[in-house]
């Protein structure tokens, strides 16, 4: 099922997409779209409806999305990617980071779950770098033994954690989404351009 429908369903329950917000989406490959972030933003024509900003970081894809700033074919685990995103944001911290990253399935369930956990931690570190205090992070995970540890780590940096499984997600799928709200800010300086290493 399209990730777009999943995001819209979760937004209906949580209102994570709001007009005027600054958002950053992390996507591994074309087709993992959450373009409704752009659609949710006013065009700035009406003074009482603030215009937000949508920024996409595409890891293994090169596409265009109307109303969004695009950074393509980048490895966001590198300092170079960090610098480019910060430059694109022009010093502005973001309200929301969305991560739709998931590895290509190998068929070995435990291996696949370990790989997506690694991507989740990369998204968390990156969100800590670009998020404003009280910002939010939404990312995808496949349920497994490492998820409780991941949640405990998240609680150190976010005030509220919620696990969601949209109806648009297949019932037999282990796919879940974790919404972390109320970013507390970085408690210690980044080292070598990264947080938490």
UniProtKB/TrEMBL annotation:
Keywords: Methyltransferase, rRNA processing, S-adenosyl-L-methionine, Transferase. It comes from Heliothis virescens (Tobacco budworm moth). Residues 5-183 form the Ribosomal RNA methyltransferase FtsJ domain. The keyword Methyltransferase applies. PANTHER family: RIBOSOMAL RNA METHYLTRANSFERASE, RRNA METHYLTRANSFERASE 2, MITOCHONDRIAL. Belongs to the class I-like SAM-binding methyltransferase superfamily. RNA methyltransferase RlmE family. GO terms for molecular function: rRNA (uridine-2'-O-)-methyltransferase activity. It comes from the Eukaryota. GO terms for cellular component: mitochondrion. This is rRNA methyltransferase 2, mitochondrial.
């Amino acid at each position: 099922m399209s990730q777009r429908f999943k995001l819209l369903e979760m937004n209906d329950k949580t209102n994570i997409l709001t007009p005027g917000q600054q958002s950053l989406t992390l996507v591994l490959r074309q087709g993992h779209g959450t373009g409704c972030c752009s659609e949710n933003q006013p065009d700035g024509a009406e003074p009482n409806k603030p215009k937000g900003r949508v920024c996409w970081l595409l890891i293994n894809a090169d596409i265009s999305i109307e109303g969004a700033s695009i950074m393509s074919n980048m490895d966001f685990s590198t300092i170079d990617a960090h610098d480019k995103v910060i430059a694109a944001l022009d010093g502005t911290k973001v309200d929301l980071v969305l991560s739709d990253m998931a590895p290509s399935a190998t068929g070995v369930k435990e291996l696949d779950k370990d790989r997506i956990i690694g991507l989740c931690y990369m998204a968390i570190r990156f969100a800590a770098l670009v998020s404003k205090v009280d910002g939010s992070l939404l990312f995808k995970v496949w349920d497994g033994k490492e998820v409780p540890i991941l949640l405990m780590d998240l609680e150190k940096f976010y005030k509220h954690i919620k696990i969601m499984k949209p109806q648009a997600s297949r019932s037999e799928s282990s796919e879940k989404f974790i919404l972390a709200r109320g970013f507390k800010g970085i408690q210690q300086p980044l080292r070598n351009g990264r947080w938490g290493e």
